[in-house]
Structure formats: structure tokens, C-alpha cells
Design a protein that fits this description.
Layout lengths: L1 E5 L2 H18 L4 E4 L6 H12 L9 E4 L1 E3 L10 H8 L11 E2 L8 H15 L4 E4 L21 E4 L2 H7 L11 E4 L2 H5 L3 E6 L5 H9 L17 E6 L7
Parallel strand pairs: 1-10, 2-3, 2-6, 3-5, 6-9, 9-10
Antiparallel strand pairs: 4-8, 7-8
Helix pairs in contact: 1-2
The chain binds 2-amino-2-deoxy-6-O-phosphono-alpha-D-glucopyranose.
Length: about 240
């Protein structure tokens, strides 16, 4: 686990974004796992700027997003699908047919999990996975639990996660459930780029990097991955 500390979110976005851009330049049909939330935005800005400058094309990549809310139309402004369309996919030349999301409204979550796992295998596996972290140490929507999960599944969101995200829901209630990639899905990625900024993440970051590997802090499993680059600002790194 390589830990890099920066002064600003822009510096983090540029440095993390360069890893993704360099990978796509080396492997045009790269399979990329994306995350949502505010933390990834500077990275996505860098990727979109590099595309707009003509320095890279994303036309042959395949994408898989970590998670999606349940009981929310895909086109709702707060869906993770719309977040990705607004913040990245509409700004680069990725092909719509190569964009993959878990269907939060699937009638059969287990069948949906199987479908997603098969789609990832068919794509050749995830080359590089972007990850953020929740204040309680969750990655994707893998909340603190009694055991590490494997494939995608439907999860009841914790009160901490609902509280952190409900600020964005002004027209419909904040969903209580989501579909998320499991820890196994995430750990099978070839490389992981992890970003955390702000004091609110400092405790989770410390537990992730220096704590015991435990499903009570899902992100701690990353200590066992062979290729993780961690980008932090000074606040998120303040307890290390
Ligand atoms: C949500 C997402 C996570 C994300 C987290 C942190 O819970 N499911 O993938 O890492 O929020 O979001 P932010 O970057 O806005 O703090």
C-alpha cells in the first residue's frame, strides 16, 4: 500500500487522474471501476480535461460502477448513474454500451449480482478500481459487518451513511437500500486507486491503513491487496 499525501484536492485529482489516463493510453480497452461521491470529482475533472485536450481517448474502455441506490429511478438527479453521467461520462468519449451499473431496481438482487459478476468476467476483469471511503470505513456500500462480502449484494444502509448522504435528497426520501459490489469483487481488481480528503475521513483512513484487518472497517481489507495507491490530503492523513 503506497500512501501519498498532498496539499490540495486538485493536486490529488491530477495525480490520481494521471494513473487512469496513463493506463488507458497503454491499454485502450481497459476495464475501469468507478466510484461516486464528492471525493472522485477532481480526478474525473482531470480525466475529462485530458480528453478535451486530445491527449487520450476513452472510446474503447469498459466501465463498472461500485454501487447504485435501490428504489430510485436511474434518471433521478441523485442516482449514481446520473452522477457519473454529469461528472465524467458525458465529458469523455466512452461508449454508452460499455457503461455498466448494478440495477438498484432489479426484482431479484441475487440474479442481478450474478449478472454483474458475469459481466465483469466477460469484460476480462477490472484492471483498475477507483475507491473512496465512507466515514464509517465503508467502501462502495460495504458497511461495517460481521464478515467480508464477496460478490455484489443488496445492502441496508447504516444510519451513518443515510445521514451523510441525505443532504442531497430534497425531493424524495433518501433510499434505505443499495446494490453494491462486494469486497471480493473489489479485491479482484488488478490495481486500486484510493482517495480520501478532509478531517471527517481521518479516523476511517487510520483504521484502514494502521488498524487490524476486520469487516468492522471494510476498507482495512485493502491492506491485503497487492497494488493499492492511497491519495490523501493532510486532513485525511492527520491521524497517521
Ligand atoms: C458513498 C459511496 C462511496 C463513497 C462514499 C464517500 O457512500 N457509496 O462509494 O466513497 O459515499 O463519499 P464522499 O466522497 O462524498 O465523501
Amino acid at each position: 500500500m503506497k500512501v501519498l499525501i498532498f496539499d490540495t484536492e486538485k493536486e490529488i485529482g491530477d495525480a490520481a487522474g494521471k494513473i487512469f489516463v496513463d493506463l488507458v493510453k497503454a491499454k485502450s480497452n481497459a476495464v475501469i471501476g468507478f466510484a461516486t461521491g464528492m471525493t472522485p470529482v477532481p480526478t474525473y475533472n482531470y480525466m475529462a480535461e485530458e480528453y478535451s485536450k486530445g491527449n487520450v481517448s476513452f472510446r474503447d474502455i469498459t466501465t463498472f460502477n461500485l454501487d447504485e441506490y435501490c428504489d430510485l429511478p436511474r434518471e433521478h438527479k441523485n442516482s449514481f448513474y446520473m452522477f457519473m453521467m454529469d461528472n465524467l461520462f458525458s465529458r469523455i468519449d466512452v461508449k454508452p454500451e460499455n457503461i455498466n451499473f448494478l440495477d438498484g431496481n432489479a426484482a431479484d438482487p441475487e440474479a442481478e449480482s450474478k449478472r454483474y459478476a458475469e459481466a465483469i468476467i466477460k469484460a476480462g476483469g477490472i484492471d483498475i478500481q477507483f475507491l473512496g471511503i465512507g466515514r464509517n470505513g465503508h467502501i462502495g456500500f460495504n458497511e461495517p459487518a460481521g464478515a467480508f462480502t464477496d460478490e455484489a449484494f443488496k445492502v441496508r444502509l447504516t444510519d451513518s451513511t443515510i445521514e451523510a448522504n441525505s443532504v442531497y435528497f430534497d425531493d424524495v426520501p433518501m433510499p434505505r437500500y443499495a446494490m453494491t459490489m462486494g469486497i471480493g469483487s473489489i479485491m479482484r481488481a488488478g490495481k486500486i486507486v484510493f482517495v480520501a480528503t478532509g478531517k471527517a475521513k481521518a479516523q476511517a483512513v487510520k483504521a484502514m491503513i494502521q488498524g487490524e484487518v476486520t469487516p468492522k472497517c471494510p476498507a482495512s481489507i485493502l491492506q491485503q491487496h497487492k497494488d493499492v495507491t492511497v491519495f490523501l490530503d493532510r486532513d485525511a492523513a492527520s491521524l497517521l
